[in-house]
Structures are given as structure tokens and as C-alpha cells.
Amino acid sequence: MLNTGNTAFMLIATSLVMLMTPGLAFFYGGLVSRKSTLAIMMQSFVSLGVTTIIWFSVGYSLCFSGDVLGIIGNLDMMFLNGVALDELIMPNGIPTIVFVAYQMMFAIITPALITGAFADRVRFKAYLLFQVLWLLFVYFPFTHMIWGGGILQQWGVLDFAGGIVVHATAGFAALASVYYVGKRRKRELTPHSIPLVAIGTALLWFGWYGFNAGSELKVDFITTMAFLNTDLAASFAAITWLAIEWKKTGKPKFVGLLTGSVAGLATITPAAGFVEPWAAAIIGICAGALCYSAVGLKNKLNWDDALDVWGVHGMGGVTGVILLGVFSSTSVNASGADGLIYGGIGFFLKQIIAVGIASIYAFVFTFAMLKIINRITPVKVSDQEQESGLDTLLHGEQAYEENVF
Prior knowledge:
Helices cover 68% and strands 1% of the residues. It is built from 14 helices and two strands.
């Protein structure tokens, strides 16, 4: 029987996750130079179209239909073949097509996360190829392996809402992209529009409630706990980042506060439905401190990860997965596992191994894929094209009129 309450909740959660992609576009758009604002926002918005088409045609089937060697699904449900309009996911009582739409929103935002790493340096045609291939060979396999009945799920690896599937894979793919495309000719160290960054952060934070709480796929006590844990981690991480940066620079930085909140959101994602609120607060503090340190290490090593995708999402995802292995408790969620502090050393080690495999694979495959794409169409823009800005060069449009800001 259709559960109208769960269905209504999941439709709202799906809409919230969809809103995160435009939120990401605003967040990234405010951080880059004014001459490349539209170029990076376009990379997020285009995923709404491209990924939807791929998800409908083959993506859902490769993630959630059948099983091939525990790594990927099959193509039996291409174009949603066999998914009836009145088919329900039991005992949740939500239509399967709502689950299809919800998971599609995750697929849409994940490759868009990577774009912040190679801001100002990549051609649009190459990015489109990158997006398609990355979904097919990174995102879909790990979605199947962890959420679609694949080998990691069978092994007992947990990931409530995407610490491995979304953040670790995207973050380490971003790092590989940085290595491949190299440094910008002229780095923009100051965001051109902090208010735009704030708007993007607000949309991301708001949408993240659907991202995490919606991953329970129904309304129950775990849903409400995941909702609260999401806010706790984001808040503690934001203040932790603010305090560390304030002490180091002597001034409380708004961008630091905003970045810290996103780090907390990314870090709590895998653990939101498996840990108690006190653990979510600790995870938030760890997220603020460790992600801040990761960004500092990136700067020290002179990696040109323009918008700190690796430091915030990559290391946030890895940290969250590992801390899930520490704090998870079956007394909180019976479908979870006991973490290290409850005697679950085996589960703790599984989490470390799984996130390690995902991160290494995403890095290696992404680097190799970019080399292959470059043989088909040039990936990088020239130094002179970087100087002129990508908005006019690639799209023939401008976010701002010349000499007006």
C-alpha cells in the first residue's frame, strides 16, 4: 500500500537535493574570478540535464539492477524498463520511481563537485566527456557496490548518504584533475563575490537535510536523528574553522565560516543515520580542524585545487567514513554496525579499507581518463585564454558588463 506520508517526505527530500546543484553553482561562482563565473556555474547546471539523460537511459539500471561480479549492475532496466508506475518499495511504501528520482539527484551533484578543483582551466567540451565517463566508470560502480547490493555492501561497509560514493570519490578525482591540468597562470586568491558564496552555502546547507535525512527513505526516528546530526556537524565545523582561522590570521573570516560548514556537512554525510548527536558534534569539530589542516597542506604543497574540493569534500568524506567506523552503534540504528568504541574493530578496518580503495581508484582512473580525453579533444585552455577569462571564450556570455562590478 502506498504510504502517502513517506512519499510526500521523499518528494520534498528529492527536491531539496536537486536544489543543492544550483547551490553549488552559486558557491563556486562566487569563489572564482568574475571573468569565469558563468563557466563554472554552467558546469554545475549542465549536469542537471546531462546526468538526468544518462541516469534515465543506463545509470539507474547499472546501479540498482542485477549484479555483475559485485562491481556493477546490468542493463535490464535501461530507460526504466520494467519499473511500473505503481511499483512500491516495501516496507517504506514509496513508489520506486520516487527512489529513481531521489538517487538521480545524488548522481547529478557528484561530478559537479569536482569542477571546483580545475576552475579557469578546462574546456567545456572536454568537461562534458569527463562527466559522462566519470559517471559510467566511477560513480555508478561505487553506487552499486555500496548501495545496490554489490561487493562492499555485502562485506558490511556502511555509507549512510555518500561519504564514499559522493565525497571521497569526487574529492580524490578533483586532486587527480589538479595534477593533470596543472596550475593557473594567475591565481585569484580572493573570491569575487562573497555574498554569492553565502547564498550558495545557504542552499547547500538547506538541501543537505534532504541529502542526509532523506537517505533513510522513510520517516522514522532515524530520519529525525540524521536531520539533527546534519545541523550539529555543520555548526560545530563552521565554528571550529572560524576559531582556528581567527587565531591564525587575527580576523574572523566569513568565507572560512562558510567553508567550515560545508566541511562539516560533507563529513557527517556517511554517519548521519548511524551515530548519536554527541558523536555528530565531535565529527563536526574534527571536520573543521582536519579539513582546515588539509587545505593548509594543499597550500603548502602548492597544489592549485582552486576551490578546495580535495581538502573539504575529499578529506571530509574520508574523515566521516573513518569516524563512522569509530562511533557507529547498533543501539542507534539496528541496520548499522558497532564501531571501534563499541568493540567493532573489524567494522572499523572495513571502513578504512573501503574508503581507501574508493579514493585511490577515483584518483588513478580520473587521471588516466583525462589523458584519454585529451587525445579526443583538448582539455586545457591556454595561458592567454585563462587571462582573458572563460565566460566569453567558451560561452560568448558575461556575468558582468566590462568595467562594471
